[in-house]
Specification:
Elements (H helix, E strand, L loop, with lengths): L1 E5 L10 E2 L5 E3 L21 E2 L2 E2 H9 L4 E4 L23 E3 L5 E3 L5 H11 L2 E6 L6 H12 L5 H8 L10 E4 L12 H13 L10 E4 L8 H21 L6 E9 L10 H28 L6 E10 L17 H16 L4 E7 L9 E4 L2 E4 L1 H9 L5 E4 L1 E4 L2 E4 L2 E4 L1 E7 L5 E7 L6 E7 L9 E7 L18 E2 L6 E3 L2 E6 L3 E7 L1
Parallel strand pairs: 1-23, 3-6, 3-14, 6-9, 9-10, 10-11, 11-12, 12-13, 13-14
Antiparallel strand pairs: 1-18, 2-17, 4-5, 7-8, 15-16, 17-21, 19-20, 21-22, 22-28, 23-27, 24-25, 24-28, 26-27
Helix pairs in contact: 3-4, 5-6, 6-7, 7-8, 8-9
């Protein structure tokens, strides 16, 4: 038996909002994410708008996609934005050195990315090139995007077909500069960030939200915390005396699973995936302690702009393209991450799963004119009820399951109340074999006066997944109300093994 206690009263002065941007996305010029994924070109037989697949736009609108990070990733560290503007037949061909040495024709550039964001009505989040770029190059890119006064770059944008500026807000100053972004030390990058950030100007009354490169979560914790401490110490002092130079610090953390493909997962690897996914909460907790020391007002956000599972390449695929199938195991990793992000929403302002289409823990897989939704997509769909809602305190007491030396709590979750006063509880049972009986207690709510609905995502095997032959094998289903037993402010029910449930009370 697992017991969950939720308080539905919002304590004055202690309200935290779950930003919709926690449910953000990431696209990179890697594998088939952009080309043959999002972008097929205007002349494709696949239905498209300005070269962007209509079917992908349609399904992403359904989950209220809030933002997209682009162009990388490691690709950003060698991307020069002027390669991706102007006539497509005149754009230079480059080599993507980080991802298999494949050719890049630059047909998907700044204008095409903003077309995608406008079709989806979502916020663009650009990651600028610090690794091989220059301060001048980054500054000019911002002017090209945001400026509405008469300048050479404004006229160039207009010549290329965009009269009005796009008014971008979210701007990353570098990517993984401890690694593929230049193998820099924390001290060197912190100084470089201040220099670049100084010239990332607010133009035409548009305010930038500038994100500094944070640490790699898979590195030793000492490295992670030293990077954050060094960056906070240097930037916090500078920001105190000048206009804000920093608004967020990124964190990258992958649930890395070695060479095993996702569809081959066994119970030992499954348990390890759950353990590694849950470790991100330790990272967040320790990083927040340092950020709190320098930023008590919590004005600087923790931006987890790369996260997700990282399995070995699928059989008969190029390992440099990072295509992986997506199982119920991946869906559970997503639900664990979201519940952790929700609970730490006071500091976490944004998160971006890697990646959107055909790469790593993607929401969508494509094959020619066919498209399927993965179990991870359905988690985004179920959890969209938390967007911009108020976090509710939740206390979980649960038993553990054990596989070898791995011992983990079975039940995880988070809760929120939206602007219409509807309450949403998301729960996951990560036990791969056993159902769990739940007692869900509300401290100040008479449930007999409320309407209750629930949906559940589950499957029979930990490696179950959707295929092009059976695209809806795993999808959310209604959880019948007859399975709930309601007594005043208590709900009793059973949550199946390896399942994700979202309950709505209104």
């Amino acid at each position: 038996m697992s017991k969950i206690i939720i308080s539905t009263k919002n304590l004055q002065g202690n309200q935290s909002q779950i930003s919709k941007h926690i449910y953000g996305h990431f696209t990179e010029h890697l594998g088939r994410c952009i080309y043959d994924g999002i972008w097929v070109g205007e002349d494709s037989k696949i239905p498209n708008t300005k070269g962007i697949r209509n079917d992908i736009v349609d399904v992403l609108k359904k989950i209220n996609i809030p933002n997209i990070r682009w162009p990388g990733g490691c690709f950003a560290d060698e991307y020069h934005w002027k390669d991706g503007i102007g006539s497509k037949n005149k754009r230079p061909m480059r080599i993507v050195s980080n991802w298999g040495g494949v050719p890049e024709n630059n047909h998907f550039g700044t204008h095409e990315f903003f077309d995608l964001c406008e079709l989806l009505d979502c916020e663009p989040y650009i990651c600028g090139n610090v690794g091989s770029g220059t301060v001048e190059e980054m500054s000019q890119w911002i002017e090209y995007i945001n400026n509405d006064s008469e300048t050479t770059l404004t006229n160039l944008r207009k010549k290329n077909g965009r009269e009005k500026p796009w008014k971008i807000k979210y701007w990353g100053v570098g990517n993984e500069n401890w690694g593929c972004g230049g193998y820099m030390t924390a001290e060197y990058y912190s100084d470089l960030f201040l220099r670049y950030s100084t010239y990332c100007k607010d133009i035409s009354e548009n305010k930038l939200y500038k994100v500094a490169c944070g640490p790699p979560g898979e590195y030793p914790i000492e490295f992670v915390l030293n990077w954050v401490e060094t960056l906070m110490k240097k930037t916090a002092v500078s920001t105190f005396y000048h206009d804000a130079l920093i608004h967020g610090i990124s964190l990258h953390y992958y649930t890395r699973m070695g060479s095993m493909p996702s569809v081959s997962v066994n119970e030992k690897k499954y348990s390890l995936a759950m353990k590694r996914a849950l470790y991100i909460e330790t990272l967040i907790t320790e990083i927040c302690k340092i950020m709190d020391k320098y930023d008590r007002s919590k004005s600087i956000g923790l931006i987890i702009d790369e996260w997700g599972t990282w399995w070995g390449a699928e059989k008969d695929t190029d390992p440099n393209l990072y295509f992986q199938q997506n199982t119920i195991t991946d869906a559970l990793v997503a639900s664990l991450n979201f519940d952790i992000f929700n609970r730490h929403c006071e500091r976490i302002h944004m998160a971006n799963i890697a990646q959107l289409v055909n790469v790593l823990q993607s929401l969508i897989l494509t094959k020619g004119d066919k498209m399927i939704l993965t179990p991870t997509y359905h988690v985004f769909d179920l959890y969209k009820v938390h967007h911009d809602s108020t976090l509710l305190p939740m206390e979980i007491t649960t038993e553990n399951f054990q596989k070898g030396r791995t011992i983990l709590p079975k039940i995880h979750g988070s809760a929120s109340k939206d602007i219409e006063e509807k309450i949403h509880i998301s729960l996951s049972n990560i036990d791969p074999n056993s159902n769990v009986n739940i007692e869900l207690l509300f401290t100040d709510l008479n449930l007999e006066m409320k309407q209750l609905e629930a949906a559940i995502l589950r499957s029979n095997k930990i490696n179950d997944h959707n295929t092009f032959e059976n695209p809806e094998y795993i999808k959310p289903k209604k959880y019948e109300n007859s399975n709930f037993k309601i007594e005043n402010n208590l709900i009793k029910f059973e949550i199946p093994s390896k399942s994700i449930m979202v309950i709505e009370i209104k």
